[in-house]
Amino acid sequence: SANRLCIMRKLPSVLARTLTSGTSASPGLLDMSEVRNKLRDIVGASTNWRDHVQAMQERKALHTLLAKRQEDLPPRRMKDSYLEVILPLGSQPEIREKYLNVHNSVRFGRILEDLDSLGVLICYTHTKQETQQRSPLSIVTALVDKINLCKKIIYPDCDIKFTGNVSWVGKTSMEVKMHMLQLHDGDYSPVLDATFVMVARDPENKRPAFVNPLIPESPEEEEIFKQGELNKLKRIEFSTASLLKMAPTAEERNIVHDIFLNTLDTRQEGEGTVSFHSRKLPPNSVWMEDAKLKGLQICHPQERNIFNRIFGGFLMRKAFELGWATACSYGGSRPFIVSVDDIMFQKPVEIGSLLLLSGQVCYTEKNYIQIRVHSEVYNANTREHHTTNIFHFTFISENEVPQVVPKTYGESMLFLDGKRHFTAVMKEI
Fold first, then answer.
1. Sheet of 187-201: strands edge to edge?
2. Cα angle 14-16-21, degrees, rounded to a multiple of 5
3. What is the distance between the alpha carbons of residues 44 and 22, in angstroms, rounded to a whole number?
4. FRET pair for 111, CA 20 to 30 Å: which of 85, 92, 278, 354?
5. CATH number of the domain that 131 lies in?
6. DSSP-based three-state secondary structure for 159
7. Is the dihedral angle over the CA atoms 54, 60, 64, 69 positive or is it negative?
8. Structural domain total, the chain
9. What per-residue string of b and e applies to 233-252 under the rule 16 or more CB within 10 Å gives b?
10. Nearest CA among 308, 299, 263, 306 for reference residue 379
11. Of 263-267, 279-283, 415-419, which one has max mean pLDDT?
12. By C-alpha distance, which of 182, 135, 139, 181 is closest to 157?
């Protein structure tokens, strides 16, 4: 099944055709630190934490530059927002340390941070007005729709190239498709593709703001745009059928009932009588309650984004690392990330918050482990907890893993939700 991951669908971007050729870093390409500097310039964010209040005050004045209607904004093409960015791990060894993990491959959490920054810059490129140096828009990540990998290992000493463009636009939201390629023997070969959804808000990040419409220019671009529409509908459908809103399907109810019957302890009682209190674990299984890990982060100013909230990429990296650790301790061998999907950014995380992360194995099949990481902030003054994100990660382990078994109804719902995510991922890859 690991081999299936390496069958990459053809890059779905017209613009990406030119990518697979070409050798080492093109001299004119932005690198990742330049991407972050550019974002600061576009928003007018200060590099000093002390000055951020002043910088945010200055942004208020940009309100007058917002469009009253979407029709007032010039339409854009896909190639207008197209960017290529280099991560020169091969040609600049000094940046390698930051990206290196203990297995001598690239830390995937760092890649998540880079994709997040790049996605935002692509959207600012789409909405750029020639006459204004600063953008009145606050563009933030609303959702990571999916990231699918086709390579198990990302090498720490070969250049990486990211490419991407806006692929679909609503009134105030934009879908961004990004690809990551790595240089081998003079050629860039695909590693992953990612679909993010970004939303535009006013200068103070309080209300939605209009963005430039997108005009597809060829049948192929029409197809990509249509796919963006479908993705949106699929998300609505997935959320409508959520187990928090609707009862499980008949087939899912049977699955849960079978698990329940499978864990009843018939030895305790005489013939024909079974106690519902006494449960036994089937062979080669682990109770769901014993398959979790927790983590805590104090949110320091260093991890802030250009709007002085905690950077979404940082949250993704921390959640991924906890998810990886949960999969590693559960499976007893090194797990590899296969897919990330359906990360909703429900609430921004303020600097100074206590961020509580909990990782849970919620579904397993053969070598695969489906992990859900729940993140919430705790406000020490009000003593309130608020969910900020739910993350879904699919890992593949080197060996077959034990079955995870729910005990309570709540755990059974998590199990079914994990199964749904896993099934959706397997269809994709």
1. 30-31, 83-87, 160-169, 173-184, 187-201, 138-149, 335-345, 384-397, 368-379, 354-365, 292-298
2. 130
3. 35
4. 354
5. 3.10.129.10
6. coil
7. positive
8. 2
9. eeeeeeeeeebeeeebeeeb
10. 299
11. 415-419
12. 182
- Give the span between the Cα atoms of 429 and 417, in whole angstroms: 19
- Show the domain range for 408: 250-267+277-427
Give the mean model confidence (pLDDT) for residues 301-322. Answer: 87
Q: Classify residue 358 as exposed, middle or buried by CB count within 10 Å of its CB (0-12, 13-18, 19+).
A: middle
Determine the distance from the C-alpha atom of residue 102 to the mean position of all C-alpha atoms in its chain, rounded to a whole number: 23
Query: Which pair of structure tokens corresponds to residue 93?
Result: 């060894």
61, 127: one domain: yes
The least confident of 279-283, 304-308, 316-320, 378-382 is: 304-308
* pTM confidence score: 0.88
Residue 361 belongs to a domain: yes
pLDDT, mean of residues 409-427: 95
155 and 261 within one domain: no
170-206 pLDDT tens trace: 999 999 999 999 999 999 999 999 999 999 999 888 8
DSSP lists the bridge partners of residue 149 as 192
